[in-house]
Amino acid sequence: MAKVLMKGNEAIALAAIKGGVDAFYGYPITPQNEVPEYLSKHLIDAGKVFLQAESEVSAINMVYGAAGAGKRVMTSSSSPGIALKQEGISYIAAAELPCLIVSVMRGGPGLGGIQPSQADYYQATRGGGNGDYNLIVYAPESIQETIDTVKGAFDTADYYRNPVLVLVDGLIGQMMESVDFDRPTKKRDLKPKDWATTGTRNHPGRRNVANSLHLDPALLEQHNIHLQKKYKEIAENETQYEMINMENPDYVIVAYGTMARIARTAIEMLQEKGIKVGMIRPITIWPYPEKAFDAIPATTKGILCCELSMGQMLDDVLIANNGRHKVGFFGRAGGMVPDPEEIVDAIVNFTQRVVK
Amino acid sequence: MSEIKYAKSKGLTDTPLTYCPGCAHGIIHKLVAESLVELGLLDKAIAIASVGCSVFSYQFFNCDAQQAPHGRACAEATGIKRVLPDNIVFTYQGDGDLASIGIAETIHAANRGENITVIFVNNAIYGMTGGQMAPTSLIGQKTTTSQDGRDFAHHGNPIHISEMFATIEGVAYLERVSVYDPKHVIQAKKAIKKAFQYQEEKRGFTMIEVISTCPVNWGMKPTDAMDWVKDKMLPVFPLGLFKDKGDQNA
Ligand SMILES: Cc1ncc(C[n+]2csc(CCOP(=O)(O)OP(=O)(O)O)c2C)c(N)n1
Ligand code: SF4
Ligand SMILES: [Mg+2]
Fold it and tell me: Is the ipTM of this complex over 0.95?
């Protein structure tokens, strides 16, 4: 397939089809509506399952059911909708079921607004659901990268038996870019889903159960230890990031998604001013690329964390930096998207941006 | 030669039931299990355990199972049934689970005519959490959160699930039964079996409301609890067939 011009949300939908999605369950919310709209037509035409649920709460539990039944299942939503899904997400993670969740962030808190935002970093990486669990969270910066991520997401989820969250902001969802759907994804050695609840006639002699209840504290602790072991393996093998311009930078910007793209332009503008700025661009935000920060030379004057929020990834930057460099923050919120000049200004006046 | 006249259903595992002695949950489990075995559906059944005293039913029914968050059983069942339309999918839910926190999921599953079976165990109380008021608690019923008795002005009336669901087009079969004496146990079994039969024939949403007991939290002996069902609950929740679309669709 040659390159095509496509809107971000529709590209997510088509990439999911290319990734082998069997079923979609969701509930409408701006700015992600083109995902279910596209799938409602194309999944049903392909004889697969699309169902508009009565709420996000219901949608995520439909996902739980179908994931437990061994199918490739997804949902998509935006900030307040993802908030409602957190209970189900915790159960799915606890029951170790694979699925894909797409979150197209808008401004918050509360009903907030419908313009692009990155204010759900905590929601994605810390989760609103209960207990010690992690999702594998990708935060791509372009439609192409989103497509590549979504296409491979079911393999990743199946491989680890863990939910994958693809986190983009409304700008990526709404803009159009020229994209290619045929780029290869990582090959994984996937085992048959012999744990799926498909009826005992399909696996005689064994009852399959999807469950997150362990009333015995010793067993529940064991389950938690098992989960942590898996999360450690994911952190070792799946952490992704990009290093840009990192030879002896005066400053280092840390940004993901749309903010990283704006920062790319700002870095070029700063170069013209004779200020050398590098960038660490996390592609996975859980697991977080802490190791990337080891590559920042001692001579670098500071790290500027840039977000479309009031400072959430900043926590991870501070942890990863571990006191080595001064850390500053630049953020816009509520759907306000900065011009590159604002980032240029934040670097030029870095001292005013320092938080720690 | 001795002959076994009565045995545990093959539809139940060997895991000991966790229900209190004299609780009707055990009877209802047996009826569900026997129905699935007799219809030859057990090995393609997927049970959805809800949150309530029956939360461990995923260990009791001798088939595949999923355990759902509180109230979400019908959503989870929908998610499964849509991708495995030829399996038998059923939920087993209490009144708190179905009629309170999960009423939206249940109504919409019914309205879509999801081809699943709901076993709705109405014991007019939150058993598992220690006897709090349920949406189906009777007027005047004393619970740990309605200590002077349920009062209409404050709490509203007990909610009538079968009466409400009878108005929903997607419901293929809906009957309210009880298990307070052998005659009614036999009737309840017939109804449960018919519901699964209808699901196998892909006729739509089926629900059996079983008027059940909670002797422990009602503060009664099991036999008195059975009498309380008959004398107090049935006047509020009359037994009977609320909907049967089967014949029209046949
Ligand atoms: C989200 C959530 N809220 C509350 C609870 C606590 N809880 C457990 S069981 C239950 C009530 C169950 O009552 P019912 O459905 O009537 O079942 P029964 O125990 O009477 O059979 C509640 C409120 C929970 N587990 N999850
Ligand atoms: S608490 Fe009540 S409903 Fe629960 S098992 Fe005991 S008697 Fe049955
Ligand atoms: Mg109850």
Answer: yes
Count the alpha carbons within 13 Å of A120 in the hemisphere toward its beta carbon.
Answer: 34
For residue B33, give its domain range: 25-249
Q: At what angle do helices A56-68 and B73-83 cross, to 10 degrees?
A: 50
Structure confidence at residue B124 (pLDDT): 98
The structure tokens listed for B176 are: 């309210």
Which burial class, exposed, middle or buried, applies to A333 when counting CB atoms under 10 A from its CB (0-12, 13-18, 19+)? middle
Number of CB pairs, chain A paired with chain B, less than 8 A apart: 129
Collect all residues with Cβ–Cβ distance below 8 Å to B245 and sequence separation of at least 6.
B171, B172, B173, B203, B204
Residue B8 lies in a domain: no
Does the pLDDT of residue B249 top 60, yes or no?
no
Q: Give the C-alpha distances (Å, rounded to integers) separating B119 from A37, B25, B161, B234.
A: 34, 11, 12, 18
| B36 in reach of chain A (CB within 8 A) | no
Distance B195 CA to ligand 2 centre (A): 25
Least CB–CB distance from A71: residue in B13, B64, B83:
B83
Q: Which residue has tokens 């199918």?
A: A71
Query: What is the fold of A4-238?
Result: Rossmann fold (3.40.50)
End-to-end CA distance of chain A: 49
Q: Which of B56, B70, B80 to mutate to test the interface with A (most CBs of A within 10 A)?
A: B80
pLDDT in tens, A261-270: 999 999 999 9
User: Contact, B66 vs B49, CB < 8 A?
Assistant: yes
B11: in domain: no
For A240-281, the pLDDT digits (tens) are: 999 999 999 999 999 999 999 999 999 999 999 999 999 999
| Domain A243-352 annotated CATH 3.40.50.80 | no
CATH of the domain at B133: 3.40.50.970
The C-alpha angle A88, B49, B124, rounded to 5 degrees, equals 105
Q: How many CA atoms lie within 13 A of A69 on its CB side?
A: 32
Per the structure, how many domains does chain B have? 1
Domain segments of chain A as ranges: 4-238, 243-352
pTM: predicted TM-score of the whole model, two decimal places: 0.97
**What is the percentage of chain B residues whose pLDDT exceeds 90?**
95
Longest dimension (CA), chain A: 71
pLDDT grade for B250, boundaries at 50, 70 and 90: very low
* Sheet of A251-254, strand order: A241-244, A277-282, A251-254, A302-307, A327-331
Evaluate whether residue B7 is within a structural domain.
Answer: no
For residues A130-151, give the mean pLDDT.
Answer: 98
